[in-house]
Fold:
Amino acid sequence: MHIDELDTPALWADLDVVERNISRMGEYCKEHNLALRPHIKTHKIPELAWRQIGSGAVGIACAKVTEAAVMAAAGLDDILLAYPLWGEHKWRNLLALTERAKVSVATDSARHAHATAVALGEDRKKISYLVEIDAGGRRTGLALDDSLSGHVARIAESGVPVRGIMLYPGHVRQVEDMDISELNAQIGQAKSAFEKAGVTVEIISGGSTPTAFYSHRIGGLTEIRPGTYIFNDLNYHSLGACTLADCALRVRCRVVSTSVADTAILDGGSKTFSDAAGLAGPGFGMIEQYPDALCEKMNEEHGYVRTGGCEQRPATGELVDVIPNHVCTTVNMHRVLYLARGGEVEEILPIAAAGKIH
Ligand SMILES: Cc1ncc(COP(=O)(O)O)c(C=O)c1O
Structure:
Protein backbone atom coordinates (compact mmCIF):
# COMPACT_ATOMS: atom_id res chain seq x y z
CA MET A 1 0.00 0.00 0.00
CA HIS A 2 1.25 3.48 -0.84
CA ILE A 3 0.85 6.29 1.73
CA ASP A 4 -1.43 8.03 -0.79
CA GLU A 5 -3.95 5.26 -0.11
CA LEU A 6 -4.14 5.88 3.66
CA ASP A 7 -7.28 7.30 5.19
CA THR A 8 -6.55 10.72 6.60
CA PRO A 9 -5.43 12.06 8.97
CA ALA A 10 -2.76 9.35 9.15
CA LEU A 11 0.34 9.21 11.33
CA TRP A 12 3.28 7.85 9.39
CA ALA A 13 7.06 7.81 9.66
CA ASP A 14 9.84 7.33 7.18
CA LEU A 15 11.45 4.03 8.15
CA ASP A 16 14.87 4.97 6.74
CA VAL A 17 14.97 8.06 8.98
CA VAL A 18 13.69 6.18 12.05
CA GLU A 19 16.37 3.52 11.58
CA ARG A 20 19.08 6.13 11.10
CA ASN A 21 18.00 8.04 14.22
CA ILE A 22 17.95 4.85 16.29
CA SER A 23 21.34 3.64 15.13
CA ARG A 24 23.04 7.05 15.41
CA MET A 25 22.12 7.31 19.09
CA GLY A 26 23.09 3.69 19.71
CA GLU A 27 26.51 4.24 18.10
CA TYR A 28 27.11 7.48 20.00
CA CYS A 29 26.40 5.78 23.33
CA LYS A 30 28.65 2.83 22.49
CA GLU A 31 31.46 5.14 21.46
CA HIS A 32 31.26 7.07 24.73
CA ASN A 33 30.51 4.14 26.99
CA LEU A 34 27.13 5.54 28.04
CA ALA A 35 24.17 3.34 28.85
CA LEU A 36 21.24 4.26 26.61
CA ARG A 37 17.79 4.17 28.17
CA PRO A 38 15.38 5.68 25.61
CA HIS A 39 12.27 7.37 26.96
CA ILE A 40 9.41 5.58 25.21
CA LYS A 41 6.84 8.35 25.85
CA THR A 42 7.66 9.57 22.36
CA HIS A 43 6.51 6.49 20.43
CA LYS A 44 4.60 4.36 22.97
CA ILE A 45 5.16 1.31 20.75
CA PRO A 46 6.82 -1.83 22.20
CA GLU A 47 8.10 -2.88 18.76
CA LEU A 48 10.06 0.39 18.48
CA ALA A 49 11.39 0.00 22.02
CA TRP A 50 12.74 -3.40 20.96
CA ARG A 51 14.51 -1.79 18.01
CA GLN A 52 16.11 0.67 20.42
CA ILE A 53 17.24 -2.28 22.55
CA GLY A 54 18.63 -3.74 19.33
CA SER A 55 20.76 -0.61 18.94
CA GLY A 56 22.36 -1.28 22.33
CA ALA A 57 19.90 0.29 24.79
CA VAL A 58 20.08 -1.30 28.26
CA GLY A 59 16.42 -0.71 29.03
CA ILE A 60 13.75 1.95 28.74
CA ALA A 61 12.39 4.93 30.64
CA CYS A 62 8.66 5.54 31.02
CA ALA A 63 6.72 8.34 32.67
CA LYS A 64 3.65 6.38 33.74
CA VAL A 65 3.24 2.96 35.28
CA THR A 66 0.42 1.98 32.88
CA GLU A 67 2.70 2.85 29.97
CA ALA A 68 5.39 0.71 31.57
CA ALA A 69 2.92 -2.18 31.98
CA VAL A 70 2.34 -2.24 28.21
CA MET A 71 6.09 -2.37 27.62
CA ALA A 72 6.65 -5.07 30.26
CA ALA A 73 3.87 -7.19 28.75
CA ALA A 74 5.86 -7.07 25.51
CA GLY A 75 8.92 -8.40 27.32
CA LEU A 76 10.84 -5.18 28.02
CA ASP A 77 12.31 -6.04 31.38
CA ASP A 78 14.43 -3.13 32.58
CA ILE A 79 12.34 -0.03 33.24
CA LEU A 80 13.02 3.31 34.90
CA LEU A 81 9.89 5.20 35.89
CA ALA A 82 11.33 8.66 35.45
CA TYR A 83 8.40 10.24 37.26
CA PRO A 84 7.41 10.59 40.92
CA LEU A 85 4.39 8.29 40.85
CA TRP A 86 2.07 8.49 43.84
CA GLY A 87 -1.18 6.78 44.88
CA GLU A 88 -2.65 3.37 45.72
CA HIS A 89 -3.49 2.48 42.11
CA LYS A 90 -0.01 3.33 40.97
CA TRP A 91 1.74 1.50 43.80
CA ARG A 92 -0.36 -1.62 43.10
CA ASN A 93 0.57 -1.42 39.43
CA LEU A 94 4.19 -0.77 40.36
CA LEU A 95 4.27 -3.95 42.40
CA ALA A 96 2.73 -5.90 39.52
CA LEU A 97 5.39 -4.44 37.24
CA THR A 98 8.15 -5.85 39.43
CA GLU A 99 6.89 -9.35 38.59
CA ARG A 100 7.93 -8.76 34.98
CA ALA A 101 10.77 -6.26 35.03
CA LYS A 102 13.67 -4.81 36.94
CA VAL A 103 12.16 -1.50 38.04
CA SER A 104 13.69 1.72 39.30
CA VAL A 105 11.71 4.80 40.25
CA ALA A 106 12.61 8.47 40.39
CA THR A 107 11.97 10.16 43.69
CA ASP A 108 12.55 13.73 44.78
CA SER A 109 11.43 13.75 48.40
CA ALA A 110 11.69 11.67 51.54
CA ARG A 111 7.89 11.98 51.79
CA HIS A 112 7.43 10.32 48.40
CA ALA A 113 10.17 7.76 49.02
CA HIS A 114 8.68 6.69 52.35
CA ALA A 115 5.06 6.64 51.13
CA THR A 116 6.05 4.36 48.25
CA ALA A 117 8.10 2.15 50.56
CA VAL A 118 5.22 1.82 53.04
CA ALA A 119 2.82 0.94 50.22
CA LEU A 120 5.14 -1.78 48.92
CA GLY A 121 5.78 -3.13 52.44
CA GLU A 122 8.00 -6.21 52.43
CA ASP A 123 8.33 -5.90 48.66
CA ARG A 124 10.07 -2.52 48.81
CA LYS A 125 13.40 -4.08 47.94
CA LYS A 126 11.97 -5.17 44.60
CA ILE A 127 12.44 -1.62 43.33
CA SER A 128 15.28 0.86 43.59
CA TYR A 129 15.38 4.65 43.61
CA LEU A 130 17.16 7.28 41.61
CA VAL A 131 17.06 10.60 43.43
CA GLU A 132 16.12 13.40 41.09
CA ILE A 133 17.93 16.70 41.37
CA ASP A 134 16.68 19.92 39.79
CA ALA A 135 19.24 20.80 37.14
CA GLY A 136 17.49 24.11 36.50
CA GLY A 137 14.19 23.17 34.84
CA ARG A 138 12.31 24.00 38.06
CA ARG A 139 9.83 21.17 37.47
CA THR A 140 10.79 18.32 39.79
CA GLY A 141 13.97 17.40 41.62
CA LEU A 142 15.70 18.36 44.83
CA ALA A 143 17.49 21.67 45.06
CA LEU A 144 21.26 21.60 44.84
CA ASP A 145 21.97 23.24 48.15
CA ASP A 146 23.23 22.28 51.59
CA SER A 147 20.01 20.42 52.38
CA LEU A 148 20.57 17.81 49.63
CA SER A 149 22.66 15.34 51.65
CA GLY A 150 20.02 15.32 54.41
CA HIS A 151 17.27 14.58 51.90
CA VAL A 152 19.32 11.78 50.34
CA ALA A 153 19.99 10.24 53.75
CA ARG A 154 16.28 10.30 54.62
CA ILE A 155 15.33 8.80 51.25
CA ALA A 156 17.83 5.99 51.89
CA GLU A 157 16.17 5.36 55.28
CA SER A 158 13.02 4.30 53.40
CA GLY A 159 14.62 0.88 52.94
CA VAL A 160 14.39 1.06 49.15
CA PRO A 161 17.90 0.75 47.69
CA VAL A 162 19.12 4.07 46.29
CA ARG A 163 21.21 3.54 43.17
CA GLY A 164 22.03 7.05 42.10
CA ILE A 165 21.04 10.36 40.65
CA MET A 166 18.60 11.42 37.93
CA LEU A 167 18.47 14.77 36.22
CA TYR A 168 16.53 16.08 33.25
CA PRO A 169 18.20 19.02 31.54
CA GLY A 170 15.04 19.82 29.59
CA HIS A 171 15.58 23.56 30.11
CA VAL A 172 18.87 23.41 28.21
CA ARG A 173 17.68 24.40 24.76
CA GLN A 174 20.66 25.69 22.86
CA VAL A 175 23.53 23.65 24.20
CA GLU A 176 26.44 25.96 24.76
CA ASP A 177 29.62 25.61 26.75
CA MET A 178 28.02 27.63 29.55
CA ASP A 179 25.25 25.13 30.03
CA ILE A 180 27.59 22.18 29.96
CA SER A 181 29.89 23.63 32.61
CA GLU A 182 26.85 24.42 34.74
CA LEU A 183 25.60 20.84 34.44
CA ASN A 184 29.07 19.55 35.27
CA ALA A 185 29.19 21.66 38.41
CA GLN A 186 25.69 20.49 39.44
CA ILE A 187 26.60 16.83 39.07
CA GLY A 188 29.76 17.39 41.10
CA GLN A 189 27.68 19.02 43.83
CA ALA A 190 25.13 16.20 43.82
CA LYS A 191 27.86 13.56 44.07
CA SER A 192 29.40 15.29 47.08
CA ALA A 193 26.00 15.41 48.79
CA PHE A 194 25.53 11.67 48.22
CA GLU A 195 28.99 11.01 49.62
CA LYS A 196 28.17 13.07 52.69
CA ALA A 197 24.95 11.07 53.11
CA GLY A 198 26.96 7.84 52.83
CA VAL A 199 25.05 6.71 49.72
CA THR A 200 27.02 5.19 46.84
CA VAL A 201 26.32 6.63 43.40
CA GLU A 202 26.20 3.80 40.92
CA ILE A 203 24.12 5.54 38.22
CA ILE A 204 23.91 9.13 37.03
CA SER A 205 21.03 9.27 34.57
CA GLY A 206 20.66 12.36 32.43
CA GLY A 207 19.90 13.28 28.91
CA SER A 208 17.26 14.84 26.76
CA THR A 209 17.39 14.86 22.96
CA PRO A 210 18.93 18.35 22.61
CA THR A 211 21.72 17.50 25.08
CA ALA A 212 22.16 13.85 24.05
CA PHE A 213 25.15 14.19 21.74
CA TYR A 214 26.94 16.40 24.29
CA SER A 215 26.62 13.82 27.06
CA HIS A 216 30.27 12.74 26.89
CA ARG A 217 31.16 16.29 27.96
CA ILE A 218 28.89 16.17 30.98
CA GLY A 219 31.13 14.74 33.69
CA GLY A 220 30.02 11.56 35.37
CA LEU A 221 26.89 10.67 33.39
CA THR A 222 26.57 6.91 33.19
CA GLU A 223 23.33 6.81 31.16
CA ILE A 224 21.09 9.04 29.07
CA ARG A 225 17.34 8.98 28.42
CA PRO A 226 16.60 10.73 25.11
CA GLY A 227 13.14 10.03 23.75
CA THR A 228 12.25 12.45 20.97
CA TYR A 229 15.37 11.54 18.94
CA ILE A 230 13.62 8.53 17.38
CA PHE A 231 11.35 10.84 15.32
CA ASN A 232 12.50 14.41 16.06
CA ASP A 233 10.15 17.31 15.41
CA LEU A 234 9.81 20.91 14.36
CA ASN A 235 10.36 22.23 17.88
CA TYR A 236 13.69 20.44 18.20
CA HIS A 237 14.57 21.49 14.67
CA SER A 238 13.96 25.11 15.65
CA LEU A 239 16.40 24.66 18.56
CA GLY A 240 19.06 23.28 16.24
CA ALA A 241 18.87 19.83 17.88
CA CYS A 242 18.20 18.08 14.55
CA THR A 243 17.94 18.78 10.85
CA LEU A 244 14.70 18.64 8.89
CA ALA A 245 16.07 15.50 7.26
CA ASP A 246 16.19 13.92 10.76
CA CYS A 247 12.45 14.51 11.25
CA ALA A 248 10.88 11.12 10.53
CA LEU A 249 7.27 11.66 11.49
CA ARG A 250 4.48 13.20 9.45
CA VAL A 251 0.76 13.61 9.79
CA ARG A 252 -0.75 13.12 6.39
CA CYS A 253 -3.84 15.31 6.03
CA ARG A 254 -6.19 16.15 3.23
CA VAL A 255 -7.06 19.70 2.22
CA VAL A 256 -10.84 19.71 2.60
CA SER A 257 -11.61 23.36 1.86
CA THR A 258 -9.99 26.35 0.20
CA SER A 259 -13.15 28.44 -0.10
CA VAL A 260 -12.00 31.13 2.33
CA ALA A 261 -9.47 33.46 0.69
CA ASP A 262 -5.81 32.66 1.35
CA THR A 263 -6.81 29.67 3.46
CA ALA A 264 -6.56 25.90 3.22
CA ILE A 265 -8.35 23.77 5.81
CA LEU A 266 -6.82 20.40 6.73
CA ASP A 267 -8.80 17.45 8.07
CA GLY A 268 -6.74 17.40 11.26
CA GLY A 269 -6.94 19.78 14.22
CA SER A 270 -6.36 19.57 17.95
CA LYS A 271 -7.71 15.98 18.08
CA THR A 272 -4.95 15.06 15.63
CA PHE A 273 -2.01 17.20 16.77
CA SER A 274 -2.78 17.70 20.48
CA ASP A 275 -1.13 20.70 22.14
CA ALA A 276 1.49 21.10 19.43
CA ALA A 277 2.94 24.05 21.32
CA GLY A 278 5.39 25.79 19.03
CA LEU A 279 8.83 26.87 20.17
CA ALA A 280 9.63 28.37 16.78
CA GLY A 281 6.67 30.73 16.63
CA PRO A 282 2.96 30.49 15.87
CA GLY A 283 1.48 27.41 14.32
CA PHE A 284 1.14 23.66 14.85
CA GLY A 285 3.71 22.42 12.37
CA MET A 286 5.10 22.76 8.89
CA ILE A 287 3.65 21.40 5.66
CA GLU A 288 6.47 19.62 3.90
CA GLN A 289 5.13 20.35 0.41
CA TYR A 290 4.29 24.01 1.24
CA PRO A 291 6.89 25.17 3.78
CA ASP A 292 5.85 28.82 3.33
CA ALA A 293 2.26 28.14 4.35
CA LEU A 294 1.42 29.09 7.93
CA CYS A 295 -0.23 26.28 9.93
CA GLU A 296 -1.85 28.96 12.02
CA LYS A 297 -4.34 27.41 14.42
CA MET A 298 -6.65 24.49 15.09
CA ASN A 299 -10.20 23.61 15.96
CA GLU A 300 -10.86 20.03 16.94
CA GLU A 301 -11.07 18.72 13.37
CA HIS A 302 -9.89 21.71 11.36
CA GLY A 303 -6.33 22.77 10.76
CA TYR A 304 -6.21 26.39 9.55
CA VAL A 305 -3.46 26.99 7.03
CA ARG A 306 -2.91 30.52 5.75
CA THR A 307 -1.59 30.44 2.23
CA GLY A 308 -1.44 34.18 1.44
CA GLY A 309 2.35 34.19 1.45
CA CYS A 310 2.74 31.10 -0.76
CA GLU A 311 3.73 31.06 -4.42
CA GLN A 312 2.16 27.65 -4.83
CA ARG A 313 -1.03 26.82 -2.94
CA PRO A 314 -2.59 23.47 -2.14
CA ALA A 315 -5.83 22.63 -3.92
CA THR A 316 -8.95 21.20 -2.36
CA GLY A 317 -8.62 17.44 -2.19
CA GLU A 318 -4.82 17.49 -2.13
CA LEU A 319 -2.82 15.39 0.33
CA VAL A 320 -0.15 17.13 2.42
CA ASP A 321 2.31 16.04 5.10
CA VAL A 322 2.62 18.06 8.29
CA ILE A 323 5.79 17.81 10.39
CA PRO A 324 4.32 18.45 13.85
CA ASN A 325 5.79 20.82 16.40
CA HIS A 326 5.73 18.17 19.11
CA VAL A 327 5.79 14.51 18.14
CA CYS A 328 5.25 13.02 21.60
CA THR A 329 1.82 14.54 22.17
CA THR A 330 0.85 14.02 18.53
CA VAL A 331 1.62 10.28 18.64
CA ASN A 332 -0.48 9.90 21.79
CA MET A 333 -3.57 11.03 19.83
CA HIS A 334 -3.33 8.16 17.34
CA ARG A 335 -3.91 4.43 17.44
CA VAL A 336 -1.68 3.28 14.60
CA LEU A 337 1.66 4.32 13.13
CA TYR A 338 2.39 3.53 9.49
CA LEU A 339 6.07 2.96 8.71
CA ALA A 340 6.91 3.63 5.09
CA ARG A 341 9.97 3.39 2.89
CA GLY A 342 9.99 5.30 -0.37
CA GLY A 343 6.27 6.01 0.19
CA GLU A 344 5.35 2.31 0.45
CA VAL A 345 3.89 1.22 3.78
CA GLU A 346 6.03 -1.63 5.15
CA GLU A 347 4.61 -1.93 8.66
CA ILE A 348 1.50 -0.95 10.58
CA LEU A 349 2.26 -0.69 14.29
CA PRO A 350 -0.41 -0.31 16.98
CA ILE A 351 0.46 2.51 19.40
CA ALA A 352 -0.15 0.16 22.27
CA ALA A 353 0.50 2.64 25.08
CA ALA A 354 -1.44 5.56 23.54
CA GLY A 355 -3.64 7.13 26.20
CA LYS A 356 -1.82 5.36 29.05
CA ILE A 357 -1.55 8.40 31.29
CA HIS A 358 -2.00 6.78 34.72
C1 LIG B 1 12.34 12.79 32.82
C2 LIG B 1 12.57 12.82 31.37
N1 LIG B 1 13.60 12.14 30.84
C3 LIG B 1 13.85 12.13 29.51
C4 LIG B 1 13.04 12.81 28.61
C5 LIG B 1 13.32 12.76 27.13
O1 LIG B 1 13.71 14.00 26.62
P1 LIG B 1 13.49 14.39 25.08
O2 LIG B 1 12.04 14.50 24.86
O3 LIG B 1 14.23 15.69 24.91
O4 LIG B 1 14.11 13.32 24.28
C6 LIG B 1 11.95 13.52 29.12
C7 LIG B 1 11.06 14.27 28.22
O5 LIG B 1 10.05 14.80 28.55
C8 LIG B 1 11.71 13.53 30.52
O6 LIG B 1 10.67 14.20 31.05
In short: The first strand starts at residue 10 and ends at 14. The mean pLDDT is 95. The chain has two domains: 3-10+235-350, 17-230. The chain has eleven helices and 17 strands.
